[in-house]
Amino acid sequence: MNKAVAKKGSGFFMRLGNCWLLRVFSFNFFAWIDYISNRKKGGCQSVGENGTMIERRGNMDRSVASLLDRIHEQYERWRTGPPLDGVELARFFNAVGRTAAVIGLSDIAAEAERLIHRLNGQTERQWTAEEALIEMVPLLRCFYEAGEAASATIPSSHRQGPKAAILLCGNDPLFFAYVRGALQTVPWRFTTIPSLEQAAASMFRLSPDCIIVSVKEGEWENPDLTVLLERAGQRPYLPVVIVRRDEGKEGRLKGYELGADDVITTPAADELFVRVRRLIEKKRKIDDLVLIDELTGVYNRKYLPRVYARLRSDLERYGAPSCLALLDLDHFKQVNDRFGHLAGDAVLQKLAAFLRQHTRGVDTVVRFGGEEFVVWLAKTSKSEARAVLERLQRQFAAEKIEADGALLSCTFSAGLVECDEPDRPLDYWLRLADKALYAAKRGGGNRIEEAAREKSGSSDEAPSQASTDRRRWAIAIVDDDELVRMMIADLVRKLVNEQGRKADIYEFGDGLSFLESPFYQSGRQSVVILDRVMPKMDGLEVLNRLRQERKPYKVMMLTSRQDERDIAHALNRGADEYVTKPFKWLELEARLRRLLKELDE
After folding, report:
1. Radius of gyration (C-alpha) of the chain in whole angstroms
2. 8: pLDDT strictly greater than 80
3. Which of 342, 419, 480, 538 is the most buried (most CB within 10 A)?
């Protein structure tokens, strides 16, 4: 050890004296002697019910946890103070090493010594708190892996694989720094948000594959934790792992009751990796079943409402518009007719892969149907989106597609619309983009056309247009469950296609947003599918409002309650149909078909 640094470090440790070391060992003196004795015998032990000594491994013991808490306190002081120099950092490592040596943690003491030697010659360098934390990662591995580093190594076979976005939240910077350092070879992208409230607010925008929440004793009643878990539960499937230091069964059960998918006592990286990877794989399977187009591997149209909800939130909160482009392959029918449908499939797969490769991670590619794709460009103006699409057009036209021994080249046309009004429904933007796409195709193809805005009062939300298109149905789905809305919307589209009709489908997450929408104000004759129990306003309250104002709506009430009195109550209030959950889809389809038919009568 550098003598100057060692001398300064010794003085630093003496100054800590009664304030740090005594706090670390504030438990009974004889218990401490017994603890040291047990460690010298080869492990941390406790007495079992039958009086025999049982070994405890894998859980952090009390002195280690106390020392770790002191490191956390020092990090928080650094984080809120000015940068520190190399001498101060070396003093800190020296103090940690001395304390670790006293309580028999030789691996931690040795690592602290190694870090001090590494700092030789860097005494004048200024360190931020984050840089110091990164420097500490090898030391933290000794704490969390309890001297069993070999078992915490991630197998090389797992270092290549599907990428995943992991959200780390909670005030545990030391554990999160250890996780990021230990899993740096794994193809996962970590985002750390200390505030549970901010994590809950950012969840939809970040779209993580898994959330890891660090929960300390006394935080189970934190309302922000409850909100975070509730919002995660509103997604089709978003796994949440709670990491905690206490070992009690009560805490573990509490985590499961709140909605966590897994509750782990502060694990080593290998265990955390395996358990989180298992949940991510489960999520991928569910996503693949519900939201992924089988042929092209991009999202299917069911995913569009989720994308729009996220981008509309960005527009409402930050004023950041997005752009929707509806793409269509030019002369695709000729490819199928001349080369066969397998060649056509190869072209579709090529375009999907090309779009994913040449757009940003925040953008979304969706197969809309047939040879049509939606590219949704997040936080992008119309002029920027046009430049992107022109680049994509040029690059894709130069691509060669091998199909059945032949080399093909294709082009696409696009209709572009800037989504800058959060009150508009998804179908409004799709219809504008479709009109622009039609203009591009009519102009000869391989073109980009920008959508012309409809005049005020002539949108699909206004009564004037509704009255001129008698064959266009209007359906509003009001339910706080996003997955239910998505499935019912798919059923509506199926019925619409069967009848050769057109429909405007609107989705609302609660009754209040429905009543405040332009759709409701228009008074257009429609079918309203209404959930019985929702936040902000109960479904029966919404139904009362509809009937009091004599709106021309056919109302189907959905509910989990199967009590005959509840059903009778809703029917007496004016519901036209009443369907209980879980749905019998054939029954739901038949009842919905009848209500749609009544719109024409």
Report:
1. 31
2. no
3. 419
Angle, CA of 585, 593 and 462, to the nearest 5°:
120
331 φ/ψ angles, rounded to the nearest 5 degrees: 55, 40
292's CB contacts (< 8 A; 6+ apart) are 298, 299, 300
Q: Nearest 5 degrees, angle CA 549-CA 553-CA 556?
A: 120
Structure tokens at 482: 């996003």
CA distance 559 to 311: 30
Rounded Cα–Cα distance for residues 19 and 14 (Å): 10
Higher pLDDT, 174 or 155: 174
Q: Residue with structure tokens 């002539």?
A: 458
CB 425 within 8 A of CB 324: no
Strands (E), 113-187: 126-127, 164-169
* Strand pairing report for 240-244 and 210-215: parallel
pTM, two decimals, is 0.48
Q: What is the pLDDT of residues 253-310, one digit of tens each?
A: 888 998 999 999 878 888 889 899 999 989 888 876 778 887 898 998 888 888 888 8
- What b/e sequence results for 411-442 when a residue is b if at least 16 CB atoms lie within 10 Å of its CB, and e otherwise? ebbbbbbbbbeeebbbbbbbbbbbbbbebbbe
What CA–CA distance (Å, rounded) separates 110 from 489? Answer: 62
Residue pair 88/132 in contact (Cβ under 8 Å)? The answer is no
